[in-house]
Each structure stands twice: as structure tokens, then as C-alpha cells.
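Board notes, transcribed. Complex of a protein with NAP.
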Amino acid sequence: MQKNLLRLYPQPSETTALTGLYLAHQIHKLGTTELPFVYANFLSSLDGRIALEDVSQSTTYIPKHLTTASDFRLFMELHAQADCLITHGGYMRALSEGRLGNILQIKDKALIEWRLNNDLKAQPAVIIASASLDFPMHDSLQEHAQTVYIATGRSADPDRIGYWHDLGFPILIAGDDRTVHGAPLIHELQGLGYKNIYLIAGPQILDTMIREKQLSRLYLTITHQLIGGKDFRTLLTGSVLGPEGDLKLKSMYYDPHSPPGSGQCFMQFSLEGPANTKHEAAT
Ligand SMILES: NC(=O)c1ccc[n+]([C@@H]2O[C@H](COP(=O)([O-])OP(=O)(O)OC[C@H]3O[C@@H](n4cnc5c(N)ncnc54)[C@H](OP(=O)(O)O)[C@@H]3O)[C@@H](O)[C@H]2O)c1
């Protein structure tokens, strides 16, 4: 049965099919070689939790009841429009330990076909950002013939840089300390010809992308749940933001049926800043 959402903004309100909702945003056409389009998608509870921390195990996790099939479908529609994904060393560790599922590839045959029909490779390139450079590579990347780059800071351990270099992985230096910074990373990716860059990383990379005005669009799903918990992660990690933290709502869709007993809103925000003025003019 087709799943429908209610569009609350822009007005007038109307019923819309979930499937195809984010494909219709045509993100794959928004970036250019001069000005890549960088976008991210996060899922949060009403009290701002994107993950909880299990202090005894020193791990974080996304509570199962926060996630829904609808949110995952829209996440994958965004994934399908990217020529490049940005993930990180923490995700590669979690993947190899089985703590998280594999989102490095698109598995839905119809979405792969959609990519091929829209001049995209079957699978996107993957950037792995890491300061420690201490993570395992995942076999699925080679199995799907994906281009892989490792991004790190200039002060990262030279032995670890050498290790990955010797294995044949190109290294992108994006920042002067150990961590990856948003502006130099996007500059490097622009130089490599990537146009539509999807951030599937966590709050630390979202923070540097927003702070350095590299993010053009934030998709945010808010489930109407209060999660609580004393140890949690929220969207950002850094100090207080200025106007770079101001977002404009572009659309909002309401799903009253999932998660069961609450519901959720799917929102799309644009960000102010030099990196997206042109994109906004085009949409
Ligand atoms: N609800 C949601 O939408 C959502 C979205 C994303 C994540 N999450 C969850 O939130 C929790 C925390 O997120 P996370 O672990 O994905 O991300 P994170 O805490 O932001 O980062 C984890 C790792 O990523 C690498 N990293 C991050 N920023 C970097 C930078 N600027 N430069 C170089 N390396 C960087 C580091 O790896 P190295 O140690 O290798 O240097 C770091 O240990 C997790 O439970 C995750 O599942 C939820």
C-alpha cells in the first residue's frame, strides 16, 4: 500500500506519496564542478537526541524506536542522488564490529536504475574522514568498485598516512590539525570533480561543515518522541554558532502513523552563506 504524507509547508497543504518525495528534489542536478552541493540528513527526537550513549560500554547508539522505514526510505533517496558520500573512521569501526548496518551502498534495484538513468555511477565514491586513521576498510567498497579516499588533517600520524598510502588509498589533507575541516575538504572534492556530496557522518563533521559554511541543505526528521537519557548526542559538538546557524525552512511533511503512537515530521532547511547563494537562486 502506498504511504502518504501531509505537506504542512509550503502552503497549501496537500497529501503526497512518500516514495519519490526526495528524488523529486533533483539534488543530483544542483551541484556543479565550480560549486558542489553539500547536503546532510539527520534524525532527531523532539528533545534533540540523535543518539544515546552507553557509558559503561563507551559506545553510542540510535534508539531503535526512533527509526522508521519511512525515514530510511527518504535517507536512501538522498543517498541515491549523490556522486560522493562523506563518512568517517568511527562508522568504519562500528560497521566492522556489527554495531551498525552497512549504508555505504544503495541496494534497492530501482534506485540503482534511477542513478544509471541519471548519469550517475551505480554506487557513489566514499570519503572516509578520520583523525586517528585507525579503522578497518570494509570489503563491500571494493566489491562494488567504489572509489575511496581517506581524508585527514595535516598533523595526523605520518605512519598511519603511510599505511593507507601503501595500500593504494589516496589521502586528502583537509586542515592543519589532526581533524578534517569542512572548507578544505569540500575544496579538495570540488577539485576531484564531485558535485553532489552527501554527508552521512555524525555531529562532529556536521559541526565543521556548518561552521565553515559548506552545507547547502539540511534534511531533518524529527520524531514526536521525548527520549530523555542523561548521556546523549545532539546535532552539533562545537561552541555557540553565529548567523551560520540560521536555517530557513523549505518544506515540512507530516507522517502521523510512524513511529507508532507519536508520528514525525520530515523537514528540509537551507542554510545562508556564500556556498549556497547560487543554489538557492536556482531552486
Ligand atoms: N540520528 C542521526 O541522524 C545520526 C546521524 C549520524 C550519527 N548518529 C549517531 O550519533 C552518534 C555519534 O555519531 P558518530 O559516531 O557518527 O560521529 P562523531 O561522534 O561525530 O565522529 C566519530 C568519529 O568520526 C571521525 N571524525 C568525526 N569528525 C571528524 C573530523 N572533523 N575529522 C576527522 N575525523 C572525524 C573520528 O574518527 P577517528 O577516531 O577515526 O579519528 C571520530 O571518532 C553515533 O551513535 C551515530 O550512530 C545519528
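The domain at 35-235+244-282 is CATH 3.40.430.10 (Dihydrofolate Reductase, subunit A). The first strand starts at residue 4 and ends at 9.
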